[in-house]
Amino acid sequence: MNLLNRLKPLRGLVLPILLVVLWDALSRQGASWAYAVVPVSSIGNAFVELVGNGELLTNLLASLARTSSGLALGILFGVTVGVLMALSKVADRLVGPLFHSIRQVPMLGWIPLIAMWFGNGEVSKVLIVTLAAFYPMVLNTYEGFSGVDKRYREVGRVLELSRFQQFFHVLLPAAVPSIANGVLHALAFAWVTAVGSELFLSSGAGLGNLMMNAEAGARMEIIVVSVLCIGLCGYVMNLLFSRLSRYVLRWRNIRG
To answer: FRET label pair with 103: which of 17, 45, 97, 120, CA 20 to 30 Å apart?
Structure first.
């Protein structure tokens, strides 16, 4: 039983290992399969090659910086607009219809227009990521502040708190869980659009650009390495923020 308990944290590795075994088996089914499903050994060699020449680190850091910048801006603007819409009926009536109309446009649909306005450089890519993170942040912030229990508001009025005090001591703590959930959604969208913008606007460093060059050179193993890096980085960022949000919101368990 002690051995089984020690192995429990490793249960999440079972499916990835099985997929690797299946992948390697398929790569041995002939030349056509070996091109589309490259052998695991080739993927390992490509990884060593990219690490050795510094290409993987350069492109990975570029994508991370792009994703982080767009995510931070999207969170900042999204929380601001969400708070305004939730706490001001005038702002909700003025901004709400426009926001809900614009967010119906798929992110990939904005890329040609943004590229025409700002070119295919870093500004356009960060702007696309910012928009992708902006939408879920507005929605979750709006929901968080709009859904604050009326009893909490009444307590604030009974204690004769100022609007500033009500915001920071009543409304914000109640809305933080919804905002944290929005950040998790924004993080996923930020990674998707960061790589997508690099694929469409293929200038400068980035994992998307690395994948485009690998496709042009028929280097399927490099594409697989890039995809694995994207998935791993997204998972690590999601895991870190999940733990951070649990730490910040630990008072919910104490109160319960």
So the answer is: 120
How many Å apart are CA 218 and CA 171, to the nearest integer? 55
- The verdict on pTM exceeding 0.90 is no
Residue with tokens 């690099």: 198
Amino acid (one-letter) located at 49: E
CA–CA gap between residue 240 and residue 147 (Å, rounded):
27
d(CA 86, CA 213): 45
Place of tokens 């002939």: 30
Pick the CATH number of 40-251 from 1.10.10.10, 1.10.3720.10, 3.90.1170.50, 3.20.20.70: 1.10.3720.10
Nearest residue to 141 via CA among 99, 109, 199, 112: 99
How far, in Å, CA of 69 to CA of 71, rounded?
A: 5
Closest by Cα among 214, 238, 225, 188 to 60: 225
Question: Whose structure tokens read 């869980």?
Answer: 177
Whether 210 contacts 222, CB under 8 Å: yes
Contacts of 116 (CB under 8 A, 6+ apart): none
- pLDDT 10s digits, 3-18: 556 656 666 677 777 8
How many CB atoms are closer than 10 A to CB 127? 19
| Distant-in-sequence, close-in-space partners of 33: CB < 8 Å, separation ≥ 6 | 26, 27
